[in-house]
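Sequence only, no structure available. Ideas?
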Amino acid sequence: MNASQKTRRTFLAGAVTASGLLVGGCNRSAGLKVAGSEGTTPGGPADLTLRIGPVLVDIAKDHTISTIGYNGAVPCPPIRLREGVPVTVDLFNDTDTPELVHWHGQIIPANVDGAAEEKSLVVPAHGNLRYRLTPQPAGSRWVHSHVMSMSDVNRGTYTGQFGFVYIEPKNNPGQYDQELFLATHEWEPFYTTAEMEEEPDPEQRARKEAQKKDEKPNGWEIGYQRFTINGKCLGYGDPVRVKEGQRVLFHFLNASATENIQLALPGHQFQVVALDGNPVPHPQLVEVLELGTAERVDALVEMKNPGVWVLGTPHDDDRKNGMGMVIEYANKSGAPRWIKPQKTTWDYTIFGEGNRVPDPDETIPLVFGKINGGTGGFNRWTINGQSYDDKAEPRVLHKGRRYRLVFDNQTDDAHPVHLHRNSFELKNVHGNGTGGVLKDVVLVKGFKKIEADVTPAMEGLTLFHCHQQLHMDYGFKLLFNVV
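Reply:
I predicted one. Tokens follow.
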């Protein structure tokens, strides 16, 4: 059985309650220990070890990628921890450069969060680091490098330094038959002058054309030659084997450096039960999933259409270059089938409970801008007219105070924005009110606006940024200080 597959766990039949997404059991994968040994001392054995080092990844027949990964695999074997149970973490760096390990989506102190801007601890080159943290909140989180790559596409999130972190909730009701952890990633990045953009609606197209009249040409963008799910291109490696009548719980992670993705499974529907690890108020059936960079979706699928199918992206070129995997029913064989789904619009608000969000104590506008880099240059990104300045004083927020962040995207790019050590509650998405949807990454489409509330739970420095590596590297970030 695959290390990312489990059988017969409990999961709520048909829906998930607001108390938490539930998965039982533990996965004692290579070098990883499940938390729970209370009384672990600083000098004793670690509960969790991550070793950063070179990895060779066979992504397709006769095609091997040399990269940096965690614990000798890409992605790292899923890490399962228990909510609220402290763990001792050992980090070993076998590379020639310092590294930052970011525990994405967790509410933990800034010094162990893994961001240079927050003055987190650095794992030195050929060195090691030990610290304690308390995993929270429950659900699908992940771990990844947080170094600034700049023009070097062999560092940061372009590498294989990523993996699921599943934080087991304290209570586990429900039912499912099989569990899958699936992480998407792209390989062999290259610089291109082609703009990587979504299909604009008429309003977006008009605003883009007006914006282009008085500006320099667009700067460098990133393209990729190979696409994978769990480190394998479509058609390479073993298929996911299922049985008719099973309920399969899929945990999806977009571990890309720069790409937003869509995924579909022909002949089946996804019942979305959690976004970014947080249970949604109203689970819904959808044909196509959309995940911005760093987003996670947990979805149940009823296996009731026997055959051999492709789970993959609706974008034909990307699927041809690997973005997909084979789902094979028992006693079925033959070439895997792909049926292109109808175009749909991904909408966070269908999972919410109406416009039921308290009034904020303060509203903070965050206007996203772009300064084109021109031919042979890099675009610069701004928030409220300013690119990130590490000499600037952080914006002060007060612990326990409710802030409404207004993400006003004045560019034609879709931006997956992330606030460290906190979650957003969505208030308004592209003009539609909602409530109860909690996320730590929000994908703001081109020339669109999203309002999201945050109540800082922990003091210290807190980084806000676009999770597109190229955007973050070139100015798209802002530092808060919670007091």
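The longest strand covers residues 174-192.
Hope that gets you unstuck.
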